[in-house]
Amino acid sequence: MILVFATRNPDKLKEMKDILIGLDIEVLSMDKTDVKEDVVEDGQTFAENALKKARFVTQKTGEWAVADDSGICIKALNNAPGVRSARWAGEGASTEKIMQHALEQMKDVPEGRRQAWMESAAALTAPDGRHWIFTGKVGGDITLKPAGKAKPGMPYDYIFKPKGYHQTFAEMSNAEKNNLSHRGAAFRQLIEFIKKIL
Fold it and tell me: Do residues 45 and 83 make contact, with C-beta atoms less than 8 angstroms apart?
């Protein structure tokens, strides 16, 4: 089975391949296909954006596709930035700039009131038009300062500490993070589904 992952982020692709290890699936990024355009993510929910991206890739390639849309929702900021997580600090902002923007927005929020959750929706689309959506959430807190070594395109990993843990996602190994993360939860559901249909 060929599965095209609607991303150009090599770290996201590696996470995906790690999660799917052991299955007879060839995972390709968009860069390994003829899909040169990027989809405008204008949905109101993570699920809408993920489905839009996956459908676009399936239509362009004729292959099964998977896409995810993820972000952070901060309670003290009325659950912002949500679906605007990647664009919150402006279009094309760097990982560092997005992370610093989040801390700046939270500068007057004391410890004990910095709750947030990270959410991911993974959409799977088939060449015949069918689709399925799987979601994952993990609660935690925004830290007062960044910690760890985050990967490009994952700015909130520096400043998000999952509930019950003393480390940010950026301080964890890939395996630890995948076991806990919102994306890991969504993709584990997707994997179980794929196993049933293979």
Answer: yes
Tally the domains of the chain: 1
Angle CA 61–63–69, to nearest 5: 90
Specify whether the CB–CB gap between 176 and 170 falls below 8 A.
no
Provide the CATH number for the domain around residue 192. 3.90.950.10
From the list 69, 108, 128, 141, the catalytic residue is 69
- Give the DSSP H/E element, type plus range, for residue 52: helix 46-61
Q: Known catalytic residue: 141?
A: no
User: Which tens digits make up the pLDDT trace of 123-139?
Assistant: 999 999 999 999 999 99
Range of the domain at 108: 2-197
Give the predicted TM-score (pTM) of the model. Answer: 0.90
* H-state helical runs in the chain: 10-19, 46-61, 95-105, 174-180, 182-197
For residue 169, pLDDT over 90 is answered with yes
Residues whose CB falls within 8 Å of the CB of residue 113, separated by 6 or more in sequence, listed in order: 75, 76
